Automatic annotation (TrEMBL):
It comes from the Bacteria. One of its GO terms (biological process) is glycine betaine transport. It comes from Agrococcus pavilionensis RW1. The keyword Repeat does not apply. Residues 19-277 form the ABC transporter domain. GO terms for molecular function: ATP binding; ATP hydrolysis activity. Keywords: Amino-acid transport, ATP-binding, CBS domain, Nucleotide-binding, Transport. The keyword ATP-binding applies. The lineage of its organism: Bacteria, Bacillati, Actinomycetota, Actinomycetes, Micrococcales. Residues 292-348 form the CBS domain. This is ABC transporter domain-containing protein.
Length: 446
C-alpha cells in the first residue's frame, strides 16, 4: 500500500490552496461573451447554442497542495477546455484562475509565461516529445528554456530520468522507445521543470492497460515522494477512482459533483453520477476502513469463556476477536469451543484463542480481502501500526460491500458462515454456568 501525500482535510488554510478556480466559463464562438453573460444569468447550454459552444460553464473549485485532483467526464464534457484554461493555453470567457495565488486569467503574455515557467507544467496524451532530441535533452528542455546552464540541467534531468525508471535510455531518441516509455519521458520533462503544479490531460489514455496501470501506480508513488499538486484529466472512471484524492465529475460543461472517490461511489449527487459509477470496480476504491465495524465483536481475553459467550450472544456472531493488553489482537474464538469451555466450567479464554486471524491496515484495498476471508474463516482484524484493534470485518460485511464486483472476482467462493449455535442452548448454558458460579462463590465464601 502506498502512502499518499495530500488528501482531504477541511481544516487547511488558504495557503494550502495550489489552484483556485472561480466561476470559470469558456464559450467558443464569435458571440462568446454574450453567451457567457446569458449563461451567468441562468440560460442553459442549449439556450445559447446559437451564440457559441459552451464548453465549460461556471466551474468553481480549489485544489489543495499535494493533492491529486481528477476531472472526469465523457468525451465532450469540457475537461480539456477546463485544464487548458488552468495554464492559460486558452483564455477564459468569464471567471478567474489562480495558481499559487497568481492570476492566470486576464494577464498579459509575459506574466503568463512567467507563471507557466515557475508554477505549472503539462503532460499531454500524445507525449509531444521533440523527435530529434535524445531522451535526456527532451527531459532537460524546460530548464533550457529557463536558461539553466547545460551541465546543471543535464544533471537534474538525469536524476528525474532515474526516478521515472528510464536509466540507461538517456541517449536514445523517442522513436526508439515504447509508448509507455515515451510517456515516462513526458512525465520526466514535466517533473524536471520543477513546478509545483502538474496538469495531465488524458496522460495515460494512449497506453495499453497493463502499462497504464503501472504508470498510474508510479504516478501515485512519485506524487507521494515529491508532493506535487496534480490535476489529472481522464474519461476513465477506474483511473479517476484509483488516482484521485478528490474527483470532479463533469457533464455538458458543468461540474456536477466534487468528492472523494468513496463519496462519489457511495453517495452520488444525482442519477447521472450514479449511472456513471455503477460499473466501477468497488474493490479498488473501498478500503478496509470503509467497511469495518466498530470493534464491538471483540472482547478482552480477561472476560473468560462466559463473558465471550455472552458477547457472542449479544452480537449474534459465531466468532469473536479477542484482545490483550492495550487492545492488541490476540486472535479469535469460535462459539462451539467457547460453549464447550463454559459447559465444562473452564475459566480461561486464552487456550481457546486461535491466533491465526488476518490483520490488515485501514487502507488495505477491499480487493485483497476476500481471499483472506476464504483462507481463514475468521473475521478480519483491522489494526493500526501497533497491532491495536481498530475495527472488525465480519465476512458478511465483505459480501455486502462487494455488491458489484466484476465477474472475474465474483467467482471466488466465500465460505458460508457456519450455522449459529441454537440460541436456546447458549442461553441454557449461560444460565447453568451462572448457577454453578453462584453456588461455588457461596461455598467459597463459607
Ligand atoms: N477550439 C474549439 N472550438 C470550438 N469548439 C470547441 C473547441 N474545443 C472544444 N470545443 C467544444 O467544446 C466542448 C468540450 O470539448 P472538450 O474537448 O473540452 O471536452 P473533453 O471532455 O475534453 O472531451 P474529449 O475527451 O473528447 O477531449 C465540445 O463540445 C467541443 O466540441
Amino acid at each position: 500500500m502506498i502512502a499518499r501525500a495530500g488528501g482531504a482535510d477541511e481544516t487547511r488554510g488558504a495557503d494550502d490552496i495550489a489552484v483556485r478556480v472561480e466561476h470559470l466559463t469558456k464559450v467558443f464562438g464569435r458571440r462568446a461573451l454574450e453567451a457567457a453573460d446569458r449563461l451567468a444569468a441562468g440560460a442553459s447550454r442549449e439556450d445559447v447554442a446559437k451564440l457559441g459552444t459552451a464548453a465549460v460553464i461556471d466551474a468553481s473549485f480549489e485544489v489543495r497542495r499535494g493533492e491529486i485532483f481528477v476531472v472526469m467526464g465523457l468525451s465532450g464534457s469540457g475537461k480539456s477546455t477546463l485544464i487548458r484554461m488552468l495554464n492559460g493555453l486558452l483564455d477564459a470567457t468569464h471567471g478567474t484562475v489562480e495558481i499559487d495565488g497568481e492570476r492566470v486569467t486576464g494577464v498579459d503574455a509575459k506574466r503568463l509565461r512567467a507563471v507557466r515557467r515557475s508554477q505549472v507544467s503539462m503532460v499531454f496524451q500524445h507525449f509531444a516529445l521533440l523527435p530529434h532530441r535524445t531522451v535526456l535533452d527532451n527531459v532537460a528542455y524546460g530548464l533550457e528554456i529557463q536558461g539553466v546552464d547545460r551541465e546543471r540541467r543535464l544533471e537534474l534531468a538525469r536524476d528525474v530520468v532515474r526516478r521515472v525508471g528510464l536509466s540507461g535510455w538517456e541517449e536514445r531518441l523517442p522513436s526508439e522507445l515504447s509508448g509507455g516509455m515515451q510517456q515516462r519521458v513526458g512525465i520526466a520533462r514535466a517533473l524536471c521543470a520543477d513546478t509545483p503544479v502538474l496538469l495531465m490531460d488524458e496522460a495515460f489514455s494512449a497506453l495499453d492497460p497493463l502499462i497504464r496501470r503501472e504508470m498510474q501506480e508510479q504516478l501515485v508513488e512519485l506524487q507521494a515522494e515529491l508532493g506535487k499538486t496534480i490535476v489529472f484529466i481522464t474519461h476513465d472512471l477506474n483511473e479517476a477512482m484509483f488516482l484521485g484524492d478528490r474527483i470532479a465529475v463533469m457533464r455538458d460543461g458543468r461540474i456536477v459533483q466534487i468528492g472523494s472517490p468513496e463519496e462519489i461511489l457511495t453517495d452520488p449527487a444525482n442519477d447521472y453520477v450514479a449511472q456513471f459509477v455503477q460499473d466501477v470496480d468497488r474493490t479498488r476504491v473501498l478500503t478496509a476502513a470503509s467497511v469495518m465495524e466498530p470493534p464491538a465483536a471483540s472482547v478482552p481475553v480477561t472476560v473468560g469463556p462466559r463473558g465471550a459467550l455472552r458477547a457472542m450472544r449479544d452480537v449474534q456472531s459465531s466468532t469473536l476477536l479477542v484482545t490483550g493488553p492495550g487492545r492488541t489482537v490476540l486472535g479469535a474464538v469460535r462459539d462451539r469451543d467457547v460453549l464447550r469451555a463454559v459447559q465444562r466450567g473452564h475459566r480461561e479464554l486464552r487456550p481457546l484463542v486461535d491466533a491465526d486471524v488476518h490483520r490488515v491496515s485501514p487502507d488495505t484495498s477491499l480487493a485483497e480481502l476476500p481471499e483472506l476471508a476464504v483462507t481463514s474463516g475468521l473475521p478480519i482484524a483491522v489494526v493500526d501500526g501497533g497491532d491495536r484493534l481498530l475495527g472488525v470485518i465480519p465476512r458478511v460485511m465483505l459480501l455486502a460491500a462487494l455488491g458489484n464486483v466484476p465477474t472475474e472476482t465474483s467467482e471466488m467462493a466465500i465460505v458460508d458462515l457456519p450455522p449459529a449455535l441454537d440460541p436456546a442452548l447458549v442461553a441454557q448454558t449461560l444460565d447453568d454456568a451462572t448457577a454453578r458460579f453462584d453456588s461455588q462463590e457461596v461455598s467459597d465464601a463459607r
